[in-house]
Write the structure tokens for this entry.
Amino acid sequence: METHVTVAHDAGDDPPDRLARWAAARGHGFTHIALARGRHRSQPMVTLRGRARADTWIAGPVARMVEDLARGGFDAVRTKTETSPWATGVPGTDEEARRLAPHLHFEHHVKMLLDPGADRRALADRAVGHAAHLSWNARRTRPDGLHERFVTQRCHGAGRTTAERRLDALLTALAAVPGATVLEIEREYVLQDTHLGLDAGWIAAGPEPTDPSRTDPS
């Protein structure tokens, strides 16, 4: 189980170094994601990892982290909890997916390495055609001077088989972009997202959860 807790931060604000130190002091992960477009392009987040039932995890460790952040002077604006797409209860078919809360979805992250002459516009255009878009780690600098981008794809209302097919189609499209190479592929299933609208203007937001009790597909 993995939860990302996003903290309020505007693009013009100072770098979120204090949040990074707060996370490091508690043994949590920290990432500052920059979106290629959208209303909230700067998204620093603290990551919590562990093993538990989804409802127990969200009501326990995740809720406590949000409270700890508030005591530290940080405004947590989103919690997003993910599990393996092969976990028990994750829908294998579209029919199974339609029986679950509509905000639940598969999510894929494709890490790309860009040569100096890579066509970034073509990369973005290919991503958009497959319900995806670009982001990057605002704090990461490669020693070779090359740039990395993440292509994130979301599959709402789809089972695992359909999600894999959409990922394959995305990878085929990305392979045709000159100067861009796939480094890593990560597959996840999103059990809970309290603020999909934070990504407005980046990737089309799915429906917001209306029933908090429907966060666990099992």
About this structure: The longest helix spans residues 54-71. The domain at 2-83 is CATH 3.30.70 (Alpha-Beta Plaits).
